[in-house]
Each structure stands twice: as C-alpha cells, then as structure tokens.
Amino acid sequence: MSQFPEPVNELIEKLTLFPGIGKKSARRLVFYLLGQSRDVAVDIAKAIVNIKDKIYTCSQCYNISDSDPCHICKDPKREQEKICVVQDARDVFAFEQTGSYRGLYHVLGGVLSPLNGVGPEDLNIESLLPRLENVEEVILAINPTRDGETTAIYLAKLIKKRNIKVTRVAQGLPMGIDIEYADDVTLTKALEGRTNL
Predict the structure, then answer these.
(1) What is the pTM of this model?
(2) For domain 6-53, which architecture applies?
C-alpha cells in the first residue's frame, strides 16, 4: 500500500510514462505542482491538451505545425530547389535553430529497420518522390546508426534514378548520436561539409 493519496499516485504513474522520468523525478514534479496554485496546474493541463488538439502534421513535409501546410513549406523565400530529409520533426527544429539552412524539409517518421518490421511503406518515402519535381539537391540528414545508414543508402538509390544530386551531412556527427542533441556549431559544420552519396 502506498503512503500517498490515490490522486498523487495516479499522477506519479502518468508522469513516469515520459521518457527519462522515473518515480523519483515524477514525485518531485507532483510535489512541485501541489505547491502551486490551481491556476498553474490548469494552465499546464491545458497546454498538454493543446498540443494534441492544435498541432498537426504538415501534409507536404510531415513536420509538426499549428497550420497545414507548415510555415516552412509556405515560405516563398525558402530555397525550393533543396530538400533536407530528416528522421523526425525534432531534427527539423535542430537545423532551424542553426539558421544556416534555408531550404525545405521532408520528415521520414523513422528509419528502415527490417529487424523491427519497419519497411519503406511504413515511412514517408512515397510522398517524398512527387516533391522532387524541381529539386536540384536532396540532403540526407539521417542519424548515423546502422538503420540510418540503411535508410540513407536506400533513399540515395531511389533519388539518383531521377538525376538529382544526393548529399549527406558531413560525418562530423559522431556515430550513434541523434541529430536533435547535436549543438548548433556541429550541425552547421555538418551541413557545410556534406558530401555526395
């Protein structure tokens, strides 16, 4: 039997569903909330509901946005002849923070992983192909893991058939690191040092 009242236990259990939040961290968050006004708790709850009700997936690039198409796809000042293909939406935000890339994006929604049953039909690959009409360069910015490498090679073969330049962000990113955790300078250098694939 727990020493906490049931609503406290319930919230602790819910918070442990977040990545990186264990029981101790969840308890700290719950007791922080208990020390705040009801308005603060309601505001936090509303913000959580809002990300489910007001955030969409862009129908063009599959980035997350509060509009469809997203502000990047709608921006006529973006370099329309470049598409940077990334693994997930967090990678778009990582590149955007650098301010060094002004082209378009395409979010795959994961990587090919035959061992986990993830094939090309499970990713946003088919929707990328029609977007390549007037594109001169596709930059593959996929996490440098075994599955990421498999995905990059698969995409490169698919895209090269259309006589489009395919580059890869420089391997200045260490193997096994997720792009979202790389700092701005590393990402900028990786973009500048991209190579043909």
Answers:
(1) 0.79
(2) Orthogonal Bundle (1.10)
